[in-house]
């Protein structure tokens, strides 16, 4: 007996699918009126009866309609709505409908995008888009890259190429990498995965603007050279997650050239500013990098996961990842047309870049630039409002759509201020109105706001700051002058 995977016992499969799409689009169009956070209580998460029922795969299949209803109402409904205009935590995934549609099409056709032979026009379109992104970064004609799952994979792919370009395998244990205390945690993971031990990673203090201190960087490199070690890469940040700070890229590039090091820029968050005519100068010097990571599911409004790794010379990617297994020889092409599977660790891969291509084709670069500029404007507006709220302290001013502040009543100790701001965050998250979380800067717990959603309004910001102030006063048991309802 043959079982066909395309057989659907539900005669109304098409109708059920269409109904879901219609309902999703309707709900998504009114997202701003929905909670930004729907928390699941510990009791709900640990309910043994629910978990036991959900974790068992039935011998006999269930109704498609029933399973979709369970997915909608019991699984997808809880958590952080990172596409919400009032979700200000992390670097949100402000996914557009266009990206969502591109995702549906990519999944529907399910093409193997590992080589041009498998998916010629799809791979060609991705290659052309990679070339456009390289041009936007100011990279030379030798540049190239690859669509990957996100910034973490982009960092790892680039750093593997850096290692292979500058270190022989017996010297991996002597290779040294340089980061700042604000560098994203994915970089440490990447260095570990490519064989660089923790004691060969130099984490440098930042300056008062949370940027890498280049004087300390050069001193650390010289010290390691004197010890007989092999400095090989500096990882600069173009928009740190905590503060949106941009390291002094031109200065770092000059140091890397002087000592023959590979300069990698983690631009997962901030590289999208290259598409802004008003703010791209903030990334001056990025064109001197040897590699760049860039996340489209952050400030280019894509669904998860869509990242890019770009390199100054794409031959470096091929040197690290090209392979010639016998069963692929029929698919070999001329060297000038390198297949995606020769540029990164994946052999089988989806065409991740097509949803970004679709978005850019429909919106155009001008609308993308305006959406990015909007994030800067909202952060600056929030800073203006915070200046009017008593007993607030701005630890990192508005930059790259990010601002960090805290409520800092003079009568409280530092420990009490930390506790106060943590509790304020918990209360607004519990309310569901907005996603506002804490981070730590200079040893202080602060509230961090990231405004990259193009539909975030000034009213959203006013109401969110009003709620934060309300929770602060409530926690301090003070009388509110202007209460803003949740």
Keywords:
Aspartate Aminotransferase, domain 2, 4-stranded antiparallel beta sheet, 486 residues, 42% helix, single chain, globular, 2 domains, 15 helices, alpha/beta
Summed up:
The chain is of the alpha/beta class. The protein contains 15 helices and 13 strands.
Descriptive overview:
- The protein has 486 residues and is an alpha/beta fold.
- It has two domains: 178 residues, Aspartate Aminotransferase, domain 1, CATH 3.90.1150.170; 241 residues, 3-Layer(aba) Sandwich (Aspartate Aminotransferase, domain 2).
- 42% of the residues lie in helices and 14% in strands.
- The chain contains 15 helices and 13 strands.
- A seven-stranded mixed beta sheet has the order 3-9-8-7-6-4-5, with helices on both faces. Strands 10-11-13-12 form a four-stranded antiparallel beta sheet. A two-stranded antiparallel sheet has the order 1-2.
- A hairpin with a 2-residue loop joins β10 and β11.
- α7 crosses α8, α7 packs across α12 and α9 runs parallel beside α10.
- The longest helix has 33 residues.
- It is globular and about 60 Å long.
- The C terminus is likely disordered.
List the helices and strands and how they pair.
Blueprint: H1 13-29, E1 37-38, H2 42-46, H3 48-55, H4 64-75, E2 79-80, H5 97-109, H6 120-137, E3 144-148, H7 151-166, E4 175-180, H8 185-193, E5 201-204, H9 214-226, E6 230-237, H10 249-259, E7 262-266, E8 291-295, H11 296-299, E9 307-311, H12 315-321, H13 354-386, E10 392-399, E11 402-407, H14 414-431, E12 437-441, E13 444-450, H15 458-475
Parallel strand pairs: 4-5, 4-6, 6-7, 7-8
Antiparallel strand pairs: 1-2, 3-9, 8-9, 10-11, 11-13, 12-13
Helix pairs in contact: 5-13, 7-8, 7-12, 9-10, 13-15, 14-15
């Amino acid at each position: 007996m043959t079982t066909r995977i395309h057989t659907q016992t539900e005669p109304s499969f098409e109708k059920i699918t269409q109904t879901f799409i219609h309902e999703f689009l309707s709900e998504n169009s009114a997202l701003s009126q929905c909670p930004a956070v729907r928390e699941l209580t510990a009791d709900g998460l640990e309910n043994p009866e629910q978990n036991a029922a959900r974790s068992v795969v039935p011998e006999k299949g269930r109704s498609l309609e029933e399973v979709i209803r369970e997915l909608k109402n019991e699984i997808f409904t809880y958590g952080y709505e990172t596409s919400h205009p009032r979700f200000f935590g992390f670097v949100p995934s402000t996914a557009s409908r266009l990206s969502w549609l591109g995702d549906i099409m990519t999944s529907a056709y399910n093409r193997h995008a590992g080589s041009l032979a498998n998916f010629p026009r799809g791979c060609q379109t991705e290659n052309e888009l990679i070339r456009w992104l390289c041009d936007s970064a100011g990279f030379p004609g030798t540049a190239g890259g690859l669509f990957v799952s996100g910034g973490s994979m982009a960092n790892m792919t680039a750093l593997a190429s850096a290692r292979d370009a500058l270190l022989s395998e017996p010297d991996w244990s002597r290779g040294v990498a340089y980061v700042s205390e604000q560098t994203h945690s994915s970089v440490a993971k990447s260095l570990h995965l490519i064989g660089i031990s923790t004691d060969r990673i130099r984490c440098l203090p930042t300056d008062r603007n949370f940027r890498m201190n280049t004087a300390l960087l050069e001193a650390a490199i010289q010290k390691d050279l004197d010890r007989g070690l092999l400095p090989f890469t500096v990882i600069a940040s173009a928009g740190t997650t905590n503060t949106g700070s941009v390291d002094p890229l031109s200065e770092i590039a000059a140091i890397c050239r002087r000592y023959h090091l590979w300069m990698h820029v983690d631009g997962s968050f901030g590289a999208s500013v290259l598409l802004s005519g008003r703010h791209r100068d903030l990334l001056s010097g990025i064109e001197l990098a040897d590699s760049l990571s860039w996340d489209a599911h952050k400030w280019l409004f894509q669904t998860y996961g869509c990242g890019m790794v770009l390199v100054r010379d794409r031959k470096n990617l091929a040197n690290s990842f090209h392979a010639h297994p016998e069963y692929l020889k029929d698919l070999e092409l001329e060297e000038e047309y390198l297949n995606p599977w020769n540029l990164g660790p994946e052999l089988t891969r989806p065409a991740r870049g097509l949803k970004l291509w679709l978005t850019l084709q429909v919106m155009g670069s001008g609308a993308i630039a305006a959406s990015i500029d909007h994030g800067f404007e909202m952060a600056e507006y929030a800073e203006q409002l915070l200046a009017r709220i008593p007993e607030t302290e701005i630890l990192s001013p508005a930059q790259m759509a990010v601002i960090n502040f805290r409520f800092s009543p003079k009568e409280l100790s530092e420990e009490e201020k930390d506790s106060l701001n943590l509790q304020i965050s918990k209360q607004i998250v519990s309310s569901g109105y907005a996603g506002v979380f804490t981070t730590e800067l200079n040893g202080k717990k602060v509230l961090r706001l990231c405004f990259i959603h193009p539909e975030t309004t000034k009213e959203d910001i006013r109401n969110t700051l009003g709620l934060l102030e309300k929770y602060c006063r409530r926690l301090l048991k003070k009388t509110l002058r202007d209460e803003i309802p949740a």
